[in-house]
Amino acid sequence: xxxxxxxxxLVPALAVSVSAQEVLKIKKLTVAEEILTEETSGEVREATExxxxxxxxxxxxxxxxxxxxxxxxxxxxxxxxxxxIRGFGKDNINVLLDxxxxxxxxxxxxxxxxFHMSTRQVAEVRILxxxxxxxxxxxxxxxxxxxxxxxGEGKGGSVFFTGGTFSYLNGGFDAxxxxxxxxxxxxxSKQYSKPxxxxxxxxxxxxxxxxxxxxxxxxxxxxxxxxxxxxxPDDNQTVKINYAFDEAKDVLYPYLMxxxxxDRTHRVNGEYYVKSLDLKVSAYWNFVKHDMQxxxxxxxxxxxxxxxxxxxxxxxxxxxxGAKIEKGxxxxxxxxxxxxxxxxxxxxADNRILMMTDLDNRGMIPDVxxxxxxxxxxxxxxxxxxxxxxxxxxxxxxxxxxxxxxGAANSGLYDAYYGTNYSLSETDTYVSGNIVVRYNxxxxxxxxxxxxxxxxxxxxxxxxxxxxxxxxxxxWVGNPNLNPTKxxxxxxxxxxxxxxxGIKGNVFYSDLTDYVYLYKLxxxxxxxxxxxxxxxxxxxxxFTVIGMLTDNVSVEAGAACxxxxxxxxxxxxxxxxxxxxxxxxxxxxxxxxxxxxQIETIYQARQHxxxxxxxxxxxxxxxxxxxxTGVNMGSRAFVGIGVDNLFDKNxxxxxxxxxxxxxxxxxxxxxxxFIYMNVNYMF
Length: 683
Fold this sequence. Notes:
- The protein is mainly beta.
- 5% of the residues lie in helices and 55% in strands.
- It has a single domain, classed as Beta Barrel (Maltoporin, Chain A).
- A hairpin with a 1-residue loop joins strand 17 and strand 18.
- The relative contact order is 0.14.
- The N terminus is likely disordered.
């Protein structure tokens, strides 16, 4: 470990070893760092390689939230945690799987994009914060790319098992075979759990409206299978093809009014790279089908048709396919990358409510197509101690809903609230770009300042959702007249290293025009929840300190804070909703190559800056301690144990609940004391 740090490993990244000799690398890239490292030097900076040799490995969203103070998770249930970065969430951040777009089918994000690749498939996570990504359309505030494992040469693989509190089980295998021409990897994993208990000893099903007979219903049952092949006919060409299938069954979401009966996902990615031309051609297709119902809730007893077993149901599906061509150039010493790409996102959701009346909510998401074509160019130039980088992107995006997909209950919603002053087809053409100046103080230390401008087109739900609700409950209707959100952001930061220690910090100020925000629509036959454009700003900071105390003991410390304020709109409270408060992390680690240990503390401050207009409530502060230890038994086997929430605290994260539609208003607590064991054997 000391050798790695002495070699300058203290760079803006982090690595997590999930088992013996298997590394899940999590790269946190600062402004324009990707182009500086990958394109100027031709290398990708390695992560800190600090090993966390045991972890529950439930989902990537929770792992990222535990590692980075500026990343927070949205707790919906036992798994499928969505993420918020610097106060931005949902489609304001791009989440890619092997560089490909994927979108969940659930209108309430039961299945966020980051949920659709299991932890065992992931080799690396790359995070670029801020509006500095021109390679992908719509990266308003960040881009997160999950990169899957490649097969190796020869024959090998691993079998793995994790068992823990609340009947949590996670097991499976992966295996590879190949030579210098063709390599193949296959894998399978299964996760299962009962509802976890909070620090006060209550099952999470006891916080919501579950039937007494369903309080001990399984919390999730997830199968993942994947296949990847790499073909290298010569030293100049590489072809990669991968396929993955995921099925999540009986997934409970106490903070919503329904649960997922199933969520099935198919993903196909292909990539062709020519080294001599620095040319890459890629294409992808994915399909998600999602069924959510209230059959395990007390509300299902109100059904007009008890034989169906539910009173509310949404059947949704989404498909996305696209392609990209990228080409690297070296023009007069300037490293340049250009590309063109296109994708189509289709989303359809049909809802039915059987309470007092039969509401035919077909077309809740009315078969919406998002079609995008874009082109980009970016480059970097080094001049003595300065590195200047810039990027530019042009996009044309067409959003279109199918009026014929609307059912009887929804067919008149747009007219009722917007009259005839709207269109179900909109084309937006816009430009994004950035410029960054970095000054190198020495070989490892630097300071930078950058400006970025990005645009994000409203998603299908924000513009076109149509959901008639029974009795006096407010309808849910999109706003077809929404404008795209524009982010003009300034970022500045530094990284400084001395000996075996380093510190890194960043500050940002994001000025948002036409920010898409929840809104209470008072016109029409009865009140409705909708979306509107407002002006707002979000600002904040984060820092990280890391270093070696001895040859075997290291320390990591970090903190982040952000605030959000409205600058326009008809609101009685100027605070933006869903902006996490101050969060810190401190970890002390021991690693002598055989024995590993870690004590980790995470603190989040009380959040009182809430949006009372949207009925947000303050959240108390919390402080938890996690302990992990493990042993490498030779070069093939690893055994470890861990305890998360050692002192069995009862606490909530600020993002632990969600509003309409389908929301219970229930705050879902974090898991109580969670004891687990990991076993991994490589062959």
